[in-house]
Amino acid sequence: MRILQLTDIHLFSDASSPAAVKNRASFDSVISYILSHREQLNVDGIVVTGDISHDGSVESYRYFFSKMELLDIPYAYLLGNHDNAENVLLAHQQQGGANKVDVCRLSDSQWRILFVNSVVKGRDHGLVSSQELNQLEMQLSESDRKTAVFMHHHVQPVGTPLVDECMLLNGHELLSICRRNGVRFIGSGHAHTLFQRKTGGVLLSVSPAVCHQWENGATSVKIVENSGFTVISLADTDSLVVETFLI
Prior knowledge:
There is one protein chain. The protein is 30% helix and 23% strand. It has a single domain (2-246), classed as Purple Acid Phosphatase, chain A, domain 2 (4-Layer Sandwich), CATH 3.60.21.10. The strands form 3 sheets. It has a 5-stranded mixed sheet, with no helix packed on it. The protein has a 5-stranded mixed sheet with strand order 4-5-6-8-7, covered by helices on one side. It has a two-stranded antiparallel ribbon with strand order 9-10. It is an alpha/beta fold. It contains 7 helices and 12 strands.
């Protein structure tokens, strides 16, 4: 099974501002790349790990859904700290989104894909609630399939203070649950960079952002102008392959 991960698109309602124009163009270029390389990418589904919108506007989510429908690939999304849960649902009702599925629909007989909510309303940092942690542990105990977990906030520091100051605050608790329940992969976004580390049998993978990357080691806003995504190959064996695409 091959899963394509998109993250941190940061769309705006006002399509005329410089940031809005740039971010829409970045998203458009990624969508065009996926369309033109469909056979080579050969993905079974897409996960979008948050910050679809920058301003949480209905208009930005309408644009997202219209572009995702062009791909004609099943996809599921979770929200990031910039997203608005009410407006994304409203836009989905208005726009349609026939290929949007529940994340469980992206699982197969060998691998199960789960989402974890790490968003704290009104805050940039992430925190997985006790209720969410308990629910995750219960879900993990219900199946002996290999498991890949996706969330918005990164679990461990990536070496860029700008984003490490607002990473997941209780990553150690999440990792503890994942390690003792045999989770093989945790994919996230939020950090606007490429990062991978294996710890305790769990591969932590941060996908580059669609809109732009932060300069490595930055303590203030310093942008690297490229767009990226990852493709995760979840094999029948214990092997995991993560391919990164920067365009």
